[in-house]
Amino acid sequence: FQRFAFLSVFVVDSLMCLFKGYALLVNADRLYSGLELVAYAFTLCGRRDTSWMRRRKPLLSGLLRMYAAVSYITLTIWLLAPLVVGGHVSLTRLDGTVATQRANIFNMWAPVSDATYNSTPVWSLFYAIEIIFCIVDVTIWVCFDCYAMTMCYMLIAQFDAMTAEYETLGRLVPDAEKNEPIPDHYDELICSIKDNQKIIDMLTIG
Questions:
Q1: CB neighbours of 49 closer than 8 A, spacing ≥ 6?
Q2: How far apart are CA 144 and CA 168, in angstroms?
Q3: In the 8-state DSSP scheme, what is residue 95?
């Protein structure tokens, strides 16, 4: 059961890594343009009231730093574990026999004899391959997840700023004693609608 559970986690993690890497490659030309959403001046209402964007910035920065730090600290522990712990592990081959191999990062069964695998050059080769896999895997996860979190938080901030703009629309009532004309706020309404459409257009590009 332990072997099946570990293999299942390994396969799921690999598939997720492939999916996220594929998404980053296919949408590479859209990633930079998407970051325009984080600019204060992307919308007129966001330019006029930057408090919503500024309010989200510390929380987002802290979350991204914590996520990246935890990810790479975990990666470092995984990479150093075989060197620090050392020892040997027992692995069941496909034919049912038990192999005793030097501990590695994933401790996956290798199609070589125990003596060959346990030799320093061969073990080091498998160790280097697993190091490369781990670094690529974690880097793809961090890039994808940090970009997704940034977009989500900034979209919330932009929509909050737009909501506040709609709520204040038409709140200024002219002084009746001065016979000031009643404004129709048409221009402000058009600007708010254009801001809304600009965000939707950015999300539907491609």
A1: 161, 164, 165
A2: 36
A3: T
For tokens 């060197």, name the residue.
83
Q: Which of 35, 54, 64, 66 is nearest to 151 (CA)?
A: 35
- The answer to whether 109 and 93 are in contact (CB under 8 A) is yes
Measure Cα distances from 97 to 60, 90, 92, 139 in Å. 51, 10, 6, 36
Tokens of residue 163, six digits: 């909501």
Residue 143 tokens, joined: 């890039």
Dihedral sign computed on CA atoms, order 101, 102, 103, 109: negative
- Give the pTM: 0.74
Instruction: Per-residue pLDDT tens, the chain, 206 aa: give them.
Output: 556 777 788 888 889 999 999 998 888 877 877 777 776 666 666 566 667 777 878 888 899 999 999 999 999 999 998 888 878 877 776 667 777 888 888 877 777 888 888 898 989 999 999 999 999 999 999 999 998 898 888 888 877 877 777 776 665 555 555 555 555 556 667 777 777 777 777 766 54
Question: Which DSSP category does 27 fall into?
Answer: T
How many whole angstroms separate alpha carbon 72 and alpha carbon 65?
A: 11
C-alpha dihedral (152, 157, 161, 167), degrees to nearest 10: 70
Whether the CB-CB separation of 71 and 176 falls below 8 Å is answered with no
Identify the CA nearest to 149 among candidates 20, 23, 60: 60
